[in-house]
Structure formats: C-alpha cells, structure tokens
Amino acid sequence: MITYEECKMQKLLSLNLHSNTVCWQNDLSDIIKKAPKVKILNLTKNEMRRNGQIKFGLMVDDQRGQLLKHTKHDIVDFLSVLPKTQHDLSSFLVDIWYQTASICFLLRTGPESQSPQTSPLYAFEEGISCKDSILFTNKVAWDLLSPSLAALLKLLKTPSSRPQRFSCEDIGEKSLPSGHTMEHSDGNSSPQGENKGRDSSQDNFGKENLHDEHDGYELPPPHLQEDDENVEVRDVHEDPQIRNNPCTLQPNSRTVKCHSEFQDIISPEREVEKKTQNGDPGTWFKVTIPYGIKYDKTWIVNSIQSHCNVSFTPVNFHYNKNQAHFFVQDVHAACALKKVNCKIHDEENEKVFVFVNLSTDPQSMKKKMKPKVMTQLKLTMNKRYDVSQQALDLQSLCFDPDLVKHHFDISLNRRNDMAATLKIISTNFPELLSLNLCNNKLYQLDGLSDITEKAPKVKILNLSKNKLKSVWELGKVKGLKLEELWLEGNPLCSTFSDQSTYVSTILECFPELLRLDGQDLASPIIIGVEAPEIIKPCKESYKGSEIIKNLVLQFLLQYYLIYDSEDRKGLLSVYHDKACFSLTIPLNPEDPAPSSLEKYLKDSRNIKNIKDSRLRVQLLKHTKHEIVDSLSVLPRTQHDLNSYVVDLCIQTDRMLFFSVNGVFKEVERESPGSVLAFTRTFILTSVSNSNLYIVNDELILRNASMKETQSAFSIPLPAPFSSSLLTLSQEQQETMHTVSTQSGMNLEQSQKCLQDNEWNYTRAGQVFTMLQTQGKIPAEAFKQIP
Amino acid sequence: MRKFRSNWSQGDRERYHERRDYYQEKAHTTHSSRVRWTREEVVTPLLPKHAATSSLMATSVDFKTYVDQACRAAEEFVNIYYETMDKRRRALTRLYLDKATLIWNGNVVSGLDALNNFFDTLPSSEFQVNMLDCQPVHEQATQSQTTVLVVTSGTVKFDGNKQHYFNQNFLLTAQSTPNNTVWKIASDCFRFQDWASS
C-alpha cells in the first residue's frame, strides 16, 4: 500500500495515516513489518472497525475469519468471556433511523469506498430484516458515510419523507423502563467496556456484510428466529454522550424494543400491530419458565392463572431440559403473563420467573392430523381395544396392517400423532386402565405427558421395547398412579448398575407400583431393608401368681413408707444383717454430674470408672447398720408409687429377686427439675420367721425424663398401710379379724394394734380400750378401706 | 510374621497357649490381670480355699475378696456379654443357664430354646455400657451357690429403631469346675428407660 524507501522505513519513528480510509489491520501489517521502530502512529480518521485486537503484529487472514463471530453459539461464547457488564439502560439513547415492520440494518459502508454509493434508499427499502433488531454502528463509520447516505438519513428525520413502509409511528414509548430514546455510542471516546459491547454488536450482525457482496447496502438475512428459539442477543450500548452527528430522531416518537433473550422488555401489542400490518392472523407467544422442571404442570399453570387477570389457555405445555414452556395465542394474555414474572413464589419461597416472548406457531398446531387418517386411526384403535380389560393395545402401531394398507404413516413418536391418539382415547376410552405402547420406537414421552388428563385412570402401562434412554422420560408421565409398568427392552434399563437400583428408581417415580417388568415387587412401600421390629415392651412381669405380686407390692409399700419418712432407721428391720447396698449414678466420665444428683455422687459406685479395689469395697455398704446410716444421710424423698414398674426376675422359696423402676422427688428441694428416676434391684430372702429381708439392694439414680416428670405424682397416693400380710400366719390372721370385728377397727389398724402389742391378743385388747377411752384412736382407724 | 513368631521364647509360647494354668496362681493380682475365659464363657480362677464354712461373710477379709471376685467377674462378664450380643449373637445363649430366664421389657423368655428364638428375632444391636455395678449375693438367698448381682446401664441401638437408654441386671452364678469357675447367667432383666414411649 505504501511505498517508501525501505531504508528509510527502517528508521521510521512516527507515522501519520490520518484520514486515509485505512480499515484493515492487514494494510498496516506491511508497514509494521517494514518499519519496526515506529513509535508514534496516527490512524485517526480512518476506517478502522475492529479495535478489539489491535496488535501491531501480523494479522493473518485466518484471524480475520476468527475474529468474526459467526454462529450464535460462537457469538454468545465470545460474549460470555467478556467481562461482566452493567449497562445503564436509562442512559441509553438509540437512534432508529429506519424501520419497517421488521427493522432492517444499516451498516457501514464498504471499504475503500469503492462500493457503489448508489441509492441508499434502495438499500433501506430492501433491507432485510431480522426481527426486532437494532442497528448500531460506530461513529467513525458514520462520519465516513458518503454524502448521499448522509443525505438520506437527513431525509429520514423528517416524518413526511419517510418511506411508506416505515412504521415508526407505531412505536410507542412503552417498553423501555425509562422511555428514552436511545442513541448509540460514541466510538472513540468510550471506555473499554463499551467498546466491547459495540464490537460484539457489530460482530453480531457483521457477518457477510463486510464483504459487501450485495449491491448497495443490502444485507444478507441475519439469523431468523428458529423454531422455538428466541431472538439473538443484542447488546445495548452504553454511552451517555450524544453524538455530534444529529442523526438522532425525534426523542418522543421513538423508542426501541430491546429484544433480548433474557430481558422481558417486550411489548406484545406492538408486535401484534406490526404483524397485523403484515397480515398475520394471530400471534403466538411462548411463555418460558426457567427451572420449570421443578414444578408440577397443574400447579404452575394454576399459580400463573391466579396471578394473571386475563385468563389464558396454555397450549402445548412441555418441558425442555430445565425449562417449562407453553404457548398462548392471546395478546392480552401474553401481556398479563408478562407481569406475572417474579410474582409467584414456590414452596421454597423462591421467585418463579416467567418470560414471555414472541414465537412461531407451536409445532403441534401446525400439522393437524387429516380427518381421513383420524378416522382410520379411530377404527384401528377400536379394534385393538379390549373392553373386558379396558386395555388398549397399541403395540407396533406404525405397522398396523390397516394403517399400512391405507399408507397412513402414524408414528407415536411424533407429537401430533401421539396427541391425536390421546385425543381419541379421551373421547372413546376415557376409563382406560391399561395401555400398551410396546415397540413404538418411542424416544421420548413428551407427547404422552397429557395422558394424566386424557386417560387418568391408566394403571398398567407397557413401554417395553422402545427407545427410552433415561428415567427422566418417565417423569413426564409421573402423574399416573401406575400399578404395573413394563420397561424392559429400553436403553434406560441398562443404565442401572443392579436390579435393586433400577427398581428403587422406578419406585421413586411411581411409588404405588406393584409390578415391574412382570415381577411382583416386594411391597409397595419400599424396597430396602425393612426395619425389624422388636418385641413390644410391656408393663410388668410377674411370672408367678397374684400372691407373689401382692407380696412384692406389699413389700414395696412398706419399704417406701419408711424410706420416705423422716427417720429411715425403721429400715433396720428390713435389712438382713449382712446385706449389701450400693448406689450408682450412670454417667459418662466426661459428663458433669447434674446438680440434682450432687448429693448422691459421693456414694456413686460405678465399677467402670472406679478401678481402685479398696474404693470399690468401701463404697459397697455391707452391714445393715452401715446401710441404714448411709441411707439416712441421703436427702428426704417422696416416692411416687403409682409410677412403679416392677420386674420379677427370680422367685424361689429362698429368694425373691425383682427390680423396680420409678420416680421420686426430693422433698427439700422444690425446684421443678427435681424429679428423679430410679431403678432399684432387690434381692430378698426369707429367714426362719418367714419375714422377708433384703440381702442385696442396688440403686441407680438418674434425672427423670420429660415424660416421667410430667406423669409423676399425677395420681394421689393411696393411704398407705403398713402391714405385710404375708408375714401373718394363719393364726395371726384370725386374731386380727377377731380384733377387727370386736373393736370395729379396720383390718389394717387391727393388725397394727396387734403388732404393736406383739400379737398378744389380750394385751392388744387392753391397750385398745385404753386408747379408745382416751380418745387417741383416730376415727380413720375405724374406716373400712375398700 | 513367621519370622517374628519364631523368635518367641518357649516361655512366651507356653504362656500364650496355656494362659489358663499360668494365671491360676495369680488369684490376687489387680484387676488388670487377665481372667481367663473361653470365648463364650466367663471364667475366673478359683479362689484360694479357706475353711469350708459356707459363711463367706465371716471375716471382712473374705468379704473384700468376695467383692473383688465379684467385681472381676462382673467386668469380664459385661465385656463378653455385650460383645457377644453385638457381634456373635448366636453364641449368646451359651452364657445362660439351662433354666435361665430373661425378662425383656416385661416380656418373659424362659428356657434356652425360647432364648435362642428370641435372640434370633431381636435385630442386631449396638450396645454402649456406661455404668456397671455389682454385688456379691448373700449365700442365704442362693443356697450356697456363689452368685453375683450385676447391674448395668447405658445406651443401645437396635437396627431400625431409635437409640434407647437401658437398664439391665443379671444374676450370675458360679459353677465351679476343678480348674476354674464358670459363670453363667441365671437371670437377666432388661428394660429401656423409656420403655413406655417406645
């Protein structure tokens, strides 16, 4: 490009290329190669378009291609790598200088201005469209626009001169939050972030344009909206500065539709108006709920409906990966739905996003089944329906001879075929119980998802020998309360490591499943380890007769009567001479002793913790005196006899061995936590005079649990009676009865009286009379205890 | 390993194999001395014979000895019992006398067959014993059979059930053989502390 003396080039330090229509880095590459020492480079007023990668090294042609991001994936990948940005939408100023029902592009001029500057007007009119995209270019290019183009733009400014198809009057000021007009950014002076934005936008629609294959400014069609996909991302520039070039269109009449996949700034009305201008009958809107897979279809639809003041009918509700989609046809509904965004909260109290976008007709509506086919299908299905079992066998439907005969191609894999089938089922066989879809080459069960509405009573489903690849597909028919399911012959079956994982995963989907692949499942509840039950505990155990039971009870009553009294010395009569007693508080060594048990702690004999044999012996109270002495030192107690649970372990003629569980409280301490629980093990022996004596007594103390505390002392104690009937011989009993009848006292008192007088009948009588005259015998003594 | 083993002295080897005899002489060592027992038996060495009176409570020395013996037996027993219960459940009934009785949360199980059945149906367990106490039982009650009362407390978790605190008491009787004393369970009483709510 530049010829120069090579030798001089070598020493070049400063190069001024001002206003030279340099637009390609490559052009400079020669220079760079030849003049490596250039330190000052002036490239102002050129046609440099891409400043992103200004590197003064070689730029190879490949890089040119690489730098041009072509497919949407490339573009978005590239954009994703760029630093995170925060655009200030309220600062935006945008110019739309031309717009048809779908906007067209204006792009820069071609390089070197060789491109015919003919008839820009022509270019605009023919400008093709990418729906709802916005055109931006950089200032530099603008400045270099040919005069005719500039003139055109001026022309555009004045309303009257606008071409017919220009419909910018229709644009309201609705969509943008701020309602500003937007202006695209100023090229040179903007900071890095905006440059990037600008670059990317250029990159977005740069595409083949740069090579200017067309005449004038015709632009090749950018990516049109694919099926259900949304429009490409357009990034919006951010530059508060207003351009010098007064290409700004009237502020109040222009707003921009910023149509991005992730922003919900669409105004459906406008879309519709535009469309209606073009003659479209009705527009479809696609409603997207990100993470919609989490939600149940009915729930989400109902929630949306409840928040939305316009009623709508969701069409073709389906899940796509994580998202839930459905279509609505009504503009007003779409508008209202837009407002539902972020208003719904799910069970985890997270916002549910709802996005509404324009879309093409939902596919399923496109290809409706022809009536002839429908009729034949109905007939076929009727043939395959078994009324007695309420079972419909659609095995290998595509190979059905009737259908084949008529050359009707029905594949249940296809959404609309499946939809038609389900429709027939719902009209003709609404009570369907069993559905066989074996061998239908089903890859997915999207179409079957409506079965929960169309045929809700299906209990048996056969999906064997299809092409289902994952259990996720089954989730689409989760609403069915299946009892029997066949899945064998599907690729998904081999994805499980073993049979039980397979079964349990399926059971998660259909918890009430009874049979899978023909095999009975163990129980509908869970396959897994069933918790083995242990024998139910029961209250008390008396191996023997009532007599023993009474014996024990009597003993306990007597014992605790004395124990709870102020003076425990009375216990001396109950203990054997050489009895043993020890007391333990079960504690982990690390745990501190609860304060309520402090007083018992010094006597606590836990062999696990105490290893010193001397101490072990010392803590075991040996003779009855030692025992009673140590017991007397313990705090005063009040036992709740109603809480007692007794286990009788051994009963021989010499030994009575039982243990008692119960609660008591300390009388001195009134704090609520002072209910203590005990387990006391007694070994009693009967000596010659047939009295029972304690030979071994072991006491375990602990704090009572909540339950125990609550139920303690709930029943008032019965009047204690002090006798132990067992110890009375026959003779003594007779005496007692006599006394009782004669004195009028009850049995207990009679017994007491006799006991006090050592069973001397005469003496007892004398004492009684004496006391009676003195009035010392309380009236209760004469009460008969029931 | 083999090499190591061959380095053992004769005495060691003997000791390893014949500990039972070796320890018989050491009746009065501290509790850390090993009380010999076969896997499913609780065995303690014989006490030195004193005067053949049945009244073992005659002197305090004897009493102390008795207490020691009881303590040792109790400790070993508790270790074996709960380990067997947790890990070798089938062998558990070998620790019981033929006519032993188990009262389990109030349910009476009596006789070895019933015990076998019971322990089979009982889910696998994980016992943690926190407390142990024991007393020698006065011979008056036991017709001169040396008996020890063992009381334990702790926590247990049965498979599939929640953890419970439990109290358990045993009556162990000694069956003396010429060489040693084998202790067996005459009675076993087990109860959850919160049995009412389980």
Q: Which helices and strands occur, and which strands form pairs?
A:
The complex is a heterodimer of chains A (786) and B (198).
Chain A lengths: L5 H5 L3 E3 L8 H10 L5 E3 L18 H7 L4 H10 L11 E2 L25 H7 L12 H5 L3 H11 L24 E2 L8 H15 L61 H11 L5 E6 L7 H11 L7 E6 L2 E6 L2 H9 L4 E2 L5 E2 L2 E5 L3 H4 L4 H13 L1 E2 L4 E3 L7 H5 L9 H14 L5 E3 L14 H4 L5 E3 L21 E3 L12 H11 L5 E2 L2 E2 L25 H19 L10 E10 L13 H4 L11 H7 L4 H10 L3 E15 L3 E12 L8 E12 L5 E12 L2 H6 L18 H14 L3 H10 L4 H14 L12
Parallel strand pairs in A: 1-2, 12-13, 13-14, 14-15, 15-16, 18-22
Antiparallel strand pairs in A: 3-4, 5-7, 5-10, 6-7, 8-9, 11-12, 16-17, 19-20, 20-21, 21-22
Helix pairs in contact in A: 13-15, 23-24
Chain B lengths: L1 H5 L3 H8 L1 H6 L17 E4 L14 H28 L8 E9 L2 E4 L1 H10 L3 E13 L1 H4 L4 E12 L4 E14 L3 E13 L6
Parallel strand pairs in B: 2-7
Antiparallel strand pairs in B: 1-7, 2-3, 4-5, 5-6, 6-7
Q: Supply the number of helical segments of chain A.
A: 25
End-to-end C-alpha gap of chain A = 129 Å
Whole-number radius of gyration of chain A? 49 Å
Beta-strand proportion of chain A: 5-15%
CATH class of the domain at 63-192 in chain B: Alpha Beta
Number of helices of chain B: 6
**Which strand-content bin applies to the residues of chain B?**
25-35%
CATH topology (level 3) name of the domain at 63-192 in chain B: Nuclear Transport Factor 2, Chain: A
Task: Give the overall pLDDT of chain B as a whole number.
Answer: 75
The number of E-state strands of chain B comes to 7
- Report the mean per-residue pLDDT of chain A as an integer: 68
Oligomeric state of the chains in view:
heterodimer
Can you give the helix content of chain B as a percent range? Answer: 25-40%
How would you portray this structure in words?
The complex is a heterodimer of chains A (786) and B (198). Chain A is elongated. In chain A, helix 13 crosses helix 15. Chain A has 25 helices and 22 strands. In chain A, a hairpin with a 5-residue loop joins strand 21 (675-686) and strand 22 (692-703). Residues 56-61, 96-146, 156-281, 523-532 and 719-726 of chain A have low confidence and may be disordered. The N and C termini of chain A lie far apart (129 Å). Chain A is an alpha/beta fold and 786 residues long. Chain B is an alpha+beta fold and 198 residues long. In chain B, strands 1, 2, 3, 4, 5, 6 and 7 form a 7-stranded mixed β-sheet that branches. Chain B starts with a helix and ends in a 6-residue tail after the last strand. At the A-B interface, strand 18, helix 20, strand 19, strand 20 and strand 21 of A face helix 4, strand 2, strand 3, strand 4 and helix 6 of B. Chain B: It comes from Cebus imitator (Panamanian white-faced capuchin). Chain B: One of its GO terms (biological process) is nucleocytoplasmic transport. Chain B: Residues 73-192 form the NTF2 domain.
